[in-house]
Amino acid sequence: MSRPKRFLSGVQPSGALHLGNYFGAIREHIRLQEQGEAFYFIADYHALTTIRTLPDGADRKAPAADLKQYIFDVAVTYLACGLDPSRAVLFRQSDVPEVCELTWLLMTVTPMADLENATSYRDKIERGKAADAGLFTYPVLMAADILAQDADVVPVGKDQKQHVEMTRDFASKFNRAFKSEVFKLPEHKFGEAPYVPGTDGAKMSKSYGNSIGIFDEGKPLEKAVMGIKTDSLPLEAPKNPDTCTVFTLYKLMATPAEQDALAAKYRAGGMGYGVAKQALLAKINEYFAPMREKRKALMADPGEVHRVLKDGAEKARANTRAVLDRARRACGLA
Ligand code: ADP
Ligand code: TRP
After folding, report:
1. Which of 19, 21, 40 to mutate to test the pocket of ligand 1 (most atoms within 8 A of CB)?
2. Ligand 1 centre from 11 Cα, in Å?
3. Which regions of the chain does DSSP assign to beta strands (E)?
4. Is 7 helix (H, G, I), strand (E, B) or coil?
5. What sign results for the dihedral spanned by CA atoms 175, 181, 182, 183?
6. Which residues pair with residue 153 across a beta bridge?
7. Relative to the CA of 198, which ligand 1 atom is closest?
8. Separation of alpha carbons 300 and 243, rounded Å
9. Which of 106, 100, 112, 115 is nearest to 177 (CA)?
10. Which of 70, 71, 159, 235 could form a disulfide with 272 if both were Cys (CB 3.0 to 4.6 A apart)?
11. 236 alpha carbon to ligand 1 midpoint, in Å?
12. How far is the C-alpha of 229 from the C-alpha of 274, rounded, in Å?
């Protein structure tokens, strides 16, 4: 009998996660735990390529302490948002150091030109980031992450599709070079992930200072929601919900009936944006209330979070060792 589909994805621990990350990635990851074997990891080796600077380019005071905190935050976020450790495996990339050896083996079949043409690398260089070998070989480590778990499907955002294609390419080059079937070729999968706008209407991103954190609450949340940019139509004017950031965010959490009701108020006129913002604020509070509670419980019991990561690492490491063993044999290192 064939085994269930294996899903694998990684998240970089590079700052507080926001609504874009939740609706664009985390929610989909968590749903997939019902559909097969799900493996998710915190890509801390990858984060080392960026953790020394802040999104605005300034140096960080304590990069090591920040990284540690972000790693813990990602783990807590996944657990609070519903990752069930009895169904899905959550681990920290650097708890599986064998993935670095696998990276080396793959590097020996990786064409320089592929790395030079990787869009994520070129984007970062164009934005003025200094080119180091870590950033340059980032896609090879990512390929190793995927191949190390014999993943079938890699749920990712559009920006990562090229990396999954490169993974297939490196895997088949290695298989061919060593006349073997060591690596399984993975497919990428885009979720029905919506595009989540930030408070200024552009794509929500931690680098744009326009995000709303998944666990923001109280005054800071209120300030962020009330600060969402809208057009300047007067209160009486009919308004278009479909071009309004407030409504776009509301839709992510509201039932179809609730969406229709608010859209009707927009179109009828007589409703100011303040009212829509209050509705959004209430919706965020309602939607994330159980997750906030879960997060508070986890923050009070960090030992539990570390146990989940330790168990996850054992499972992920066992898979990686088996794959690495096949690869070493295939290329004559065993
Ligand atoms: P950021 O832009 O804040 O640095 P990342 O690039 O780390 O976010 O995002 C991790 C994943 O979260 C992405 O691959 C994507 O799937 C999802 N994501 C991030 N921002 C958004 C957004 N505004 N809308 C939809 N999905 C998003
Ligand atoms: N590069 C991915 C990102 O920035 C994170 C990542 C690292 C990843 N290794 C992976 C995603 C393996 C999927 C599979 O979002």
Report:
1. 21
2. 10
3. 6-11, 37-42, 88-92, 153-155, 187-189
4. strand
5. positive
6. 7, 187
7. 23
8. 41
9. 106
10. 235
11. 36
12. 11
Protein residues whose CB sits closer than 6 Å to any atom of ligand 2: 8-10, 12, 43, 46, 142, 145-146, 154, 156, 160
* CA angle, 76 then 77 then 83, to 5°: 90
Q: What's the one-letter identity of residue 53? A: T
For residue 4, the CA-to-ligand 2 centroid distance in Å is: 22
Domain positions in the chain: 6-195+302-331, 206-294
Ligand nearest to the CA of 166: 2
Nearest in space to 47 (alpha carbons), one of 78, 76, 73, 80: 73
Establish whether residue 164 lines the binding site of ligand 1, counting it when its CB lies within 6 angstroms of any ligand atom: no
Report the residue among 42, 147, 160 best suited for mutation to probe ligand 2: largest number of ligand atoms under 8 A from its CB: 160
CB 71 near ligand 1, within 6 Å: no
pLDDT in tens, 257-287: 999 999 999 999 999 999 999 999 999 999 9
User: Is residue 1 pLDDT above 70, yes or no?
Assistant: no
208 alpha carbon – ligand 2 mean position (Å) = 21
Model pTM?
A: 0.95
Assigned superfamily of 206-294: Tyrosyl-Transfer RNA Synthetase (1.10.240.10)
CATH class of 6-195+302-331: alpha beta
| Residues with Cβ within 8 Å of residue 147, at least 6 apart in sequence | 102, 106, 167, 170, 171, 183, 184, 186, 323
DSSP 171-211: HHHHHHHTTS--SPPPEEE--SPPPPB-TTSSBP-GGGT--
